Amino acid sequence: MNGEPRYDPAPAASRPLLAIAGVLLLALVFVLGLVIGQGVGGRSGALPTPSASPGTSVTPLPTPSGPTPSLPTPSGPTPSLPPDAPADFGLFWEAYQLIRENFVGRDELVPREITYGAIRGMVEALGDTAHSVFLTPEALQREEESLSGTIVGIGVLLGERDGRPVIVSVVSGGPASRAGLRSGDEIHAVDGFTVNNLAPEELAPRIRGDEGTTVEITIFRPATQESLSFQIVREEISFPAADWAMVPGTQIALLRLIQFSDGAGEQLRAARDDALAQGAQGFVLDLRSNPGGFVHEAINTASLFLDRKTVYIRELADGERIPVPTVDTLSPTDLPLVVLIDEGTASSAEIVSGALRSAGRGELVGDTTFGTGTVLLTYKLTDGSAVRLAIERWLTPDGELIFGKGIEPTVPLALDPTARPLEPAEVAALDPAGLAASGDAQLLRALDILHTAGVP
Q1: When you count CB atoms within 10 A of the terminal residue's CB, does the N or C end of the chain come out lower?
Q2: pLDDT tens digits along 137-158
Q3: CATH code at 424?
Q4: Which helix (H) or strand (E) holds 267?
């Protein structure tokens, strides 16, 4: 999610704006956010040894007596290095040879895991925590599958906040959503194993599992200061990117965009045009708990409501700033619009929110968004693994960097801790009285704003 932008190949006709071949994956998992399912995950390999829990007694090892033994010098020829290698890069080979010759468990060493661990450490040394990452071939495949619209798991996306794993978004209608998990919940344990010290990509494999199996998730909910545990059955989750319903008793259409998977912009355009055909005079665009996805879908989505505007600004490593415009062929509507956002609104969803706010297109109602903003380019390695590096940042059309800050609503309004956002299908099943009593104060406020603007 900790998802951040990634470039992938894109047809020129639909993505003429990309100077670098590909598409930005704004994922939170990493803010990528990670979809916790069989379809996506983090890096594989050995997980860190859990630290002792509070109250655990740890006996210190005895201090050896006698002279301190000297370290052996690696034997054998010194490996050759590339001519442009850093002066101290030979230290890696020196350490690797020492491990191979002297580690007590050297017979059980897996060379691939040592190599992967070295690459992972090199990427982590960049300090771009939870954004630039190393992905094994398996992790890369699972992540790519996550944007297909079908996953197996509990249906959450993970991020990291203040060094702790946090649920960035909950997939609407998925098992986690039905169980009661929410955006902003901090994950403390999985099946009784403390995970406070795990990065999102390390936590993901512990939550994933086979369809039909059960996982216990223990969370802390800052909004209510509660510690809660949930027993959740993993399942295949298939969902459209977009859905909509006419709000009962009004001519206002609620458009819900779940994520920016491939084709999401076209699905939303179909929903918008269907609503227009049924007499919609105004729109509520619900981007709550939307973890992001492909940036070309963010451009397409913004282009449905903006005419000849800048969607976002690319800031390159050398400081150059490149405005990215809307797509002229998507026939935007100028009907009144209100956008719903919350702390689960991330990456591509923040690009759209920022574009609409900067253009003065409509009010943003809800909570401050998650705050992603690093552009990631995925470089595949020869064995199918990949290094995803932050190569640029994205800014709002006003030049505002929202990384770590988020997009602030123009109408701040938090939901009551006991309430939850309504889905379009639920809205369609309510009468006006039921809607008013639903507890979704953000949606109700959006409707009030549109009514005040003259939308019946």
Answers
A1: C
A2: 888 877 776 655 567 789 887 8
A3: 3.90.226.10
A4: helix 264-277
